[in-house]
Amino acid sequence: MKYNSIQNIAFIIIVLILYLNYLKIPSFKQHVNRNKYNIFPVGDLINIKDNKYIDENNIIWIKRLFLNSLLHNPFKYYVFETYDINKRSSSEVEILKKDFDNGSQQFKTSSFNYYSSFNSPISHFFSDILPIIIYLFPKYKIYN
Length: 144
Description:
By secondary structure, this protein is α+β, with helices and mostly antiparallel strands. It has one domain. The chain has helices spanning 2-21, 28-32, 97-101, 121-134; strands at residues 46-49, 52-54, 60-63, 77-83, 90-96, 108-113. It has a six-stranded antiparallel β-sheet with strand order 1-2-3-4-5-6. The longest helix has 20 residues, at 2-21. The termini are far apart.
């Protein structure tokens, strides 16, 4: 009896999460074109504290830790992320570790996220991760 109650509560929670986030799933076109919103650091990043950097436009960039960069090959790349003013969306750029460590700051686009993975993980899953699965790893248009 106790097991059925737990299952029912879990089912209700899952349905509620789906209901509240279903409309956050972008269309195929919105998903593959999302990188047009991605921003890049302006000028060189200057380390201000731990993994926080600032660019010439006073935009704060966070260098992700190894575990937070698993989808970006953290053995090879550093990933930097910045959030919009409301901390909803985020822009990511990446750079080869050896290049950054040698003073180069030639970043390449990583991805724009409609919802930040750190500030809104459930919304991020529905708007940025689930579409990758739904649309079977689509080929993205890259905007520079």
